[in-house]
Request: fold
Amino acid sequence: MASEPEITLSRRERQIMDIVYRRGRASAVEIRADLPNRPSDSAVRALLKILEDKGHLHREKAEGRNVYSPTRTRNQASRSALRRLLKTFFDGSTTQAVAALLNDQETSPSDEELNRIAEMIERAKTKGDAK
Reply:
């Protein structure tokens, strides 16, 4: 099984990944055009090379130019990042992470979201009974 790409990204690398996920695939010129406070062409190309080396981007030639696409779906990448966040900040505890979200006014879920979360918990309990 291939190793999972390194998930530590700089602010610029995250911006680039957001652009590539949003577009599906993009050239360096397209990525640079979408970046805030546009860096130089060479800076964008260097960052794309870093992201490719880290295993986040795949490069292919299309119509004489390099086009980049993500190596994993956004869902796969977000799950990997979430696991890393849980391990780093919450000792791997889902309970601690959920408690932090519920107790933070900026991230406090609405009643509708709480109902959806309760439904997910019930489904997870049912799934656990099948083991």
